[in-house]
Structures are given as C-alpha cells and as structure tokens.
Amino acid sequence: MNIYGIGTDIVEIERLASKLTKEAFVSLVFTEEEMSYCRSRKHSEESFAARFAAKEAFMKAMGTGWSEKCDFKEIEVKNGPSGQPVVILHGHTKSHFENSCLKEIFVSLSHTTATAVAFVIITK
C-alpha cells in the first residue's frame, strides 16, 4: 500500500453549531442522508462537526482544498457495517479520485463536547 495523502482537521463544535442554524450552509455541505443521521443523534452538532472535519481532512489528503475537483456535498461520511466511518464519493469528486488512480480512503473520527477531529489517509 502506497500513501498518496494524509489529512487532518479539528472543528470547534460551538463555532460550527452557529452555522448549523443556517439551512443554506447545511444543505451546501451535507447530503440528505448525513443530515438525517446527524439530526437523529442526541448531540447532533457533534456528529455534524465530525463529518465536516472528515470532509476537510479528505480535501487536505487529496491536496485540492474546496475546488472544482472536490466539493463538500460530494464527500459523504457514513457508518460502515460495524459502525466504522467510511467515505463515499459522488460526482466530480468521485471522478477526480478515480482519474487520479487512487484506491482507498481510510477515515477516523473522534469528538468531545467541545471539538471534533478527523484523520484521513488516501492510498494509491
């Protein structure tokens, strides 16, 4: 396995919570499934923050930032069969990933009541 990129991001939950009151922001960044999952959680802002951090960490690992090659809503963070987080790509972001001959995305999420952190490794 060859590592293509590594990314990490830390989000202050209180800071993101103020943005979550704006539906325009939420619908720009999160998929319907992510919104549904996060809103079903007791502390939804922690789940939103962890997923936001994962999207940012993915863009850093890709080396693109938020651009025409990577879009927040095209990076979806779900739970795998055993509950582990997984990244599912859509649209132009998926095409860019595949055209770059990249293989796997590994993601780890964690949070406290104050911060959320995500770490992403992409292999080629």
User: End-to-end span in angstroms?
Assistant: 7 Å
Give the number of DSSP strands: 5
Q: Write out the strand line-up for the largest beta sheet, numbering strands in chain order.
A: 1-5-4
The gyration radius over C-alpha positions equals 14 Å
Category from helices, strands and their pairing: alpha+beta
Mean pLDDT: 95
The largest pleated sheet is described as:
3 strands, antiparallel
Beta-strand content estimate:
25-35%
> Helical element count?
5
Order of helices and strands: EHHHHEEHEE
Q: What percent of the residues sit in helical stretches (DSSP H or I)?
A: 40-55%
Q: Spans of 5+ residues with little confidence (pLDDT < 50)? A: none
Shape: globular
Task: Please give a handful of descriptors for the protein shown.
124 residues; 5 strands; two-stranded antiparallel ribbon; 41% helix; alpha+beta
Written overview of the protein:
- By secondary structure, the protein is α+β, with helices and mostly antiparallel strands.
- It has 5 helices and 5 strands; from the N terminus they run E-H-H-H-H-E-E-H-E-E.
- The strands form 2 sheets. A 3-stranded antiparallel sheet has the order 1-5-4.
- Strand 4 and strand 5 form a beta hairpin.
- The mean pLDDT is 95.
